[in-house]
Design brief:
The protein is mainly α. The protein folds into two domains: 74 residues, no CATH class; 39 residues. The protein contains three helices and two strands; from the N terminus they run αββαα. Strands 1-2 form a two-stranded antiparallel ribbon. Strand 1 and strand 2 form a beta hairpin. The N and C termini lie far apart (108 Å).
Length: 132
């Protein structure tokens, strides 16, 4: 494969093209543009940079940044309240789990589904009298 010459690539970028917008009914030229690949590339790059700049400016200079999660913005009071609410929610979930376990165990006892513990088979260690 032949290597592209830098002059031919630049020449290809600078070739001029005509873009014509015509009225379909009358075949009248509504507007025409003289373009090159380089000018289209520069235009699209400029539009992209301007849009990115506008979006960043919108986020930095407006209150929208407070609504983005994970950015660390927001006042300290809201963050404190959020942490306290998270702690309370966790403790309420834990208490609910304990109560549910209690009610499940109570339901088992009332229905007689409790396994019988045989206390006769317990082996207790013998205590020797040291006073003899």
């Amino acid at each position: 494969m032949s290597k592209l010459d830098a002059n031919s690539t630049l020449k290809r970028l600078q070739n001029r093209y005509r873009l014509v917008v015509m009225n379909e009914d009358t075949y009248e030229e509504v507007i025409k543009f003289k373009l090159s690949r380089l000018s289209v590339y520069v235009f699209l790059s400029t539009v992209f940079v301007v849009l990115v700049g506008l979006i960043i400016a919108l986020l930095v200079f407006t209150p929208l940044k407070y609504y983005l999660p994970g950015t660390g913005y927001g006042n300290a009071r809201q963050m404190r309240e959020y942490k306290l609410l998270k702690i309370r929610t966790d403790s309420m979930e834990q208490a609910l789990q304990y109560k549910q376990q209690y009610y499940d165990d109570l339901h088992k006892v009332l229905n007689g589904n409790v396994p019988v513990l045989d206390t006769n088979k317990l082996t207790l260690p013998k205590v020797e009298n040291q006073a003899e």
